[in-house]
Design brief:
Blueprint: H1 7-27, H2 32-36, H3 40-66, H4 75-84, H5 90-108, H6 115-125, H7 127-145
Length: about 150
């Protein structure tokens, strides 16, 4: 049966996201002070987080398009559409909004990022990527069962 979504593309993006998150976790030190002093490696962590978040929002956009949920005005509308359609629960929308906010800080205020705050966010919220992956895998599995 043909899935209503481009599952192969989505799985590739999930894999790319996971690779980035794994690299961040492997290189994230135990303290904010150590993180602040990492130099170029810290910059790589920020870049990998940006890439992982972009993969998340690419997946959301693919789902919105493939499920014909309408032409969104932006990422927030895509998230609203996916929650309304039941692709993931409303708590996921909030997690993804926080991801997008972190990405925007990394991209637009790179030179003035508060490394201690970013470290705290990374430690506390990196698990959200795994929750997102589980939700997407659950959805893809349900499509395959139909």
């Amino acid at each position: 049966m043909t899935l209503p979504v481009r599952s192969t593309v989505i799985r590739i993006k999930l894999s790319e996201m996971r690779e980035s998150i794994d690299l961040v976790q492997q290189n994230l030190p135990d303290s904010a002070d150590s993180f602040s002093g990492m130099g170029l490696l810290k910059d790589g962590i920020y870049k990998r987080m940006e890439y992982a978040i972009e993969n998340v929002f690419d997946i959301c956009a693919i789902l919105n398009t493939d499920l014909h949920l309408g032409i969104p005005g932006g990422d927030e509308e895509i998230l609203d559409n996916l929650v309304t359609k039941g692709i993931f629960p409303s708590e996921m929308r909030q997690k993804l909004k926080h991801m997008k906010g972190f990405r925007n800080i990394v991209v637009h205020r790179y030179g003035t990022i508060d490394d201690a705050l970013a470290f705290s966010i990374l430690q506390r919220n990196i698990v959200d990527f795994f929750v997102f992956r589980q939700e997407i895998e659950r959805f893809l599995q349900s499509c395959e069962e139909k």
